[in-house]
Amino acid sequence: MHFIYFIMLHIGEFNTLKILRDTKVGLFLGSEETQEDDVLLPNKYVPKEFSIGDDLTVFIYLDHEERPVATTLKPYIKLNEFAHLKVNYMNQFGAFLDWGLEKDLFVPFKEQARPMEVGKRYLVYMHMDEKTNRLVASSRTNKYLTNENVDLEPNEEVNILISHITDGGINVIINQKYKGLAYKNEVYTDVKPGMKTIGYIKNIRPDGKIDVLLRKVGVEAIEPSSQIILDELKANRGFLRLTDNSHPEDIKTVLKMSKKNFKKAVGNLYKQQLIEIKEDGIYLV
User: What one-character-per-residue DSSP string does 92-131 give?
Assistant: First the structure.
């Protein structure tokens, strides 16, 4: 019976299923064609209003007895994805992570890149254990990342997950698939491991390494940067003590942008007659 479940239902993912019947313990969801492969949505997750035959989108995982169960809660991680998760407790078998659901996510000792500790967060990858058909996580994340056959283009917008920060730069995971690096001197906002954001492909090297930016460059960057300057002017009574001669670090501290983008944005605002440029700084018109 379990074998059928794993074929019909997508464990570790969101499924859109029909409401088949209402019972004392909750709603049974599934396909009208194969009602023996249904799954329970416990009462605590049942919507206030529903009708038999309605479609419901639910996340399916395994309960404490390893049976498929549905929930309307949104987990912090899905099958074949990466996330930063906190360790709730440890036992003789491994670590158990908080992933937003009632039953914690298991990380066997053999899947821990270094021994985990309660209360700390780790970057993990969730996969289906082939031997047990259970969802498990691994902090040995490198084996689940590949930069072979990279299907990306320069300037392409991508989803970024901050992996970890080193002296070499900010290590990121691109589209839940590739390893990338953002250089610290090109990052103008505060970032921390686990943060999700939008990035842009700067360069794909011949060896497969990928450089990313966390902000658009070129013409496309002028408009958002111009808005940042306008917002800062309005917040400071229409004046900013920044000029072409200002130190790049001063510009980065105040506006979280490079001097190059600052000069482009100021030029753009000046052309639109939105600012005045004087020796002591910029004035809002």
Answer: SSEEEEE-SSSSPEEEEGGG-SS---TT-EEEEEEEEETT
